Amino acid sequence: MPIAAVGQFCATGDVANNARICCDLIQRAAKFGAEMIFLPEAADFVSSGEEESSSIMSSKEPLKFMEKIKEQAKQSKIWVSLTVHEPIDGDKKMWNTHYIINDQGKEESFYHKAHLMSMMFKEGPQMKESDSTHPGEKIGHPVQTPLGKLGLQMCYDMRFAEPAIMLRQRGAEILAYPSAFTVNTGMAHWEPLLKARAIETQSFVIAAAQIGQHNEKRSTYGHAMIIDPWGTVIAQCPSHKNEPSIAIANIDLDYLSQLREEMPVIEDRRVDLYAQLG
């Protein structure tokens, strides 16, 4: 039975140090026998603002980051899921890209984040992701991994059931949501949303997470976890400390198949009644 590892850590604007942390987590996962490790959104860097982001993106550090991750994946013979910032030629905005790297250090698949967060609380954090990021334009097909067929999503995407259901209909057995959830929304919504996506699609959900105080302006919730198709949390990283950590779980596709056969939720959907939704 394949083993998945989910990770969390506190990224900063130091891209080289973030790469060292990611490589260490990859090595740890491999030592535990995991076939694949899932790392958080913005694994390459979390900046303090537009000026720092622009400086990082204009340097060679992001390219070096990916080179180190690919090299470590190959050395450790493990697949890697992670999210990085990518420049767009002729555009000040970036892609927020979820990559799957195979155990040979090659890019197997990618997904540009489709849903960009808008958060404008009168008392609390304010953020509009579309100010710096270009939205992805498609939901791709699941990619075959050592764990099973994996559907790629990201963070804010978990608030929308439609892409998760679409990926399930396209054959997904696992959904990945690398994330950098704010503390206040995380406390209220993180686990309920992830469980909802797992239950409604009868899929494993793997959500890596950023955790802790990244800078004066940004802190994140953590609680990286793996949820089974019944909605049970089967692995979770420590939530009381900011040190880099991983948690592991078996991905039992026989259990998934049995559950889908005994309770055929997707087949029972009445699309004829809500085809105009959206």
TrEMBL record:
InterPro entries the UniProt entry points to: C-N_Hydrolase, C-N_Hydrolase_sf, Nit1/2_C-N_Hydrolase
Coiled coil segments of this chain: none
Source superkingdom: Eukaryota
GO biological process terms held by the UniProt record: amide catabolic process
All copies of domain CN hydrolase, residue ranges: 1-253
Pfam hit, one: CN_hydrolase
Recorded GO MF terms: deaminated glutathione amidase activity
Alphabetic keyword roster: Hydrolase
Gene3D superfamilies: Carbon-nitrogen hydrolase
Membrane-crossing residue ranges in chain numbering: none
PANTHER family: DEAMINATED GLUTATHIONE AMIDASE, NITRILASE-RELATED
Stated name of the protein: Nitrilase 1
Native source organism of the sequence: Choanephora cucurbitarum
Underlying gene: NIT1
